[in-house]
Amino acid sequence: MNTKKWLFLALTALLIVTSSLPGMAQESASIEDVVTRFYDWYLGYFYQSDDFRNPIVDGAYRENEFLTAGLIEAIDTQVASAGDRGIGHDPFLCAQDLPSLYQFDVVHNDGEQALVLLREYFGTPRSNNVTLILAQTDSRWQIADVVCGDTLTPRGVAQDFYTWYINQAQQLMQSGEGNILTTGAYREYPYLSEALQASIDTSVASIGPGSGDPFLCAQDIPQGVWVSDVDVHESSATLLVEAHFQGNPNTHHLIVQLEKPDQQWLLTRVTCGLEPEILAQLLYKEYAEQIRYSIDNNIEMDILRNPVYHWNRHVSADLLDRLVAASEADLMADPVLCAQDLPERFATDVLDANDNAATVQMSGLYPSGPGSYNIYPLTNIRLELIDGQWQLTDITCNG
Asked: With contact defined as beta carbons under 8 Å apart, do 15 and 108 qualify?
């Protein structure tokens, strides 16, 4: 049984048992204590002396009481196999750098095993997610495994699928075993909805020479993908997938939708291309998240941390210059939001559109009570298709 199917079955079993467990608060607290004490110790180890010691290089993790013997042995093997070249990323952080802060949630707990979603932050609101598997050993919780990435969030599932899919496609092609579509290997991924799998089956049956891959909307295999949340709700999510191909400077876009019918997020639809209102919603969401993250963590906003600075691939040079200048001025309202307060969410309304341009009204949703919002039109933004890529070219405040 492959690893993903095992993890899928393990998750399912944990969910079924967890739903009927009483009195989990006390157990969760002990799990929280284990995770907090281990990662506080681990991150603090790097800074305990002026020469920046490394707990992997020093082997200090071997003496830590919060790790199982099996995990210690696995890390030992990983370090030994890497030899002098060193391991590519830290096995406990799944990153090459040290996070500025971390947060976590105990996602499942059946009394014997538990899953923890660890979110690491590196100066931006986009987290690097890691899945921790904890087990009871001699009546105490220990970390038994560290899995880079996650399949507990919509972005985690989409990123996990495309990483797996690209690797599988490349391996099959290099080995001469065939195409990932014609061999049906894509069916092995456990987090595809039945409806999406049936749709792909139909597409594969009609694929002819020169047809594109329905998961990639392309004939070639990308080098990698970058997945971003666009609009995430309790049981549905829309995400943007940006694929990058060797020798092609332009970004290839896909829209992926997921649903959570029970306890697990499933891929339900893949749409080729990028609608301008989706891009608008993503950029405004990221803009508000960056400001909120900076406020919450007392990070001073400067040009390098200004959200519009990172929009350069999606914003015309003229508008980017105007926004950067406006953001540094002492204005009554934010020049992008045209508001003084940050909305919790955004809504879009396409006012007019053609194949090369669109005007989208951005509205802010401000909480007015439990589950209710007041909606205020904020801006009308202009998007144009420039060199094959949608870009924001103008922002007009409403009111």
From this structure: yes
The model's pLDDT over 165-217, given as tens digits with 9 standing for 90+, comes to 999 999 998 998 888 999 999 999 999 999 999 999 999 988 776 678 999 99
For the segment(s) 155-274, the CATH number from 3.40.30.10, 3.10.450.50, 3.40.50.300, 3.40.50.1240 is 3.10.450.50
* Spatial contact of 362 and 333, defined as CB atoms under 8 Å apart: no
Per-residue model confidence (pLDDT) at position 20: 37
Distance CA 251, CA 245 (A): 8
What is the rounded distance in angstroms from the CA atom of residue 218 to the CA atom of residue 216?
5
Q: Which helix (H) or strand (E) holds 12?
A: helix 3-18
> Of how many residues is the chain composed?
399
Q: How far apart are CA 82 and CA 198, in angstroms?
A: 42
pTM: 0.85
Cα angle for residues 200, 206, 212 (degrees, 5° grid): 70
- Which residue, chain included where needed, has tokens 């040079």? 317
**Percent of the chain, pLDDT > 70?**
90
Q: What is the edge-to-edge ordering of all strands in the sheet holding 224-232? A: 224-232, 236-244, 252-259, 266-272
Decide: 332 and 339 in contact? Cβ < 8 Å: no
Cβ-contact 125, 131 below 8 angstroms: no
Q: What are the boundaries of each domain within the chain?
A: 3-152, 155-274, 277-397
Q: Report the alpha-carbon distance of residue 362 to residue 395 in Å, rounded.
A: 10
Q: What is the C-alpha separation between 328 and 306, in angstroms, rounded? A: 9
Question: CA-CA distance, 220 to 248, in Å (whole number)?
Answer: 11
- In order, the DSSP letters of 153-183 are SHHHHHHHHHHHHHHHHHHHHHHTS--TTTT
Q: Which CATH class is domain 3-152?
A: alpha beta
